[in-house]
Amino acid sequence: MSLTSTVSGDTRIIAVNVERIDAAMAIQFKEDMRSETEAGPERVVLDLSQVKFIDSSGLGAIVAAMKQMGGERRLELAGLTPVVDKVFRLTRMDTVFNLFATLDEALTARQK
Question: Whole-prediction pTM value?
């Protein structure tokens, strides 16, 4: 799995550099996310702008990544492509995660 991570102010930005998060890579995604989020800022923004497809395993992996971060930290999602955005809305995961159209929007959003 190809993730890149940077810190901007009080936010860790993790970019997913693959086109699919599916059953074939869900376990590796969870492990990589754990490594990237073990320490650091309370707010983590996952940049999904390169992801064109996500299945239920990929969705579950993102939820698992949020849970392993702990209750005090936040995982927010940015740059969802139309297909990925539709999956999050159809499964009502848009009520669990803050979704932002772009990474810039996520970075300038008022933090709660």
Answer: 0.92
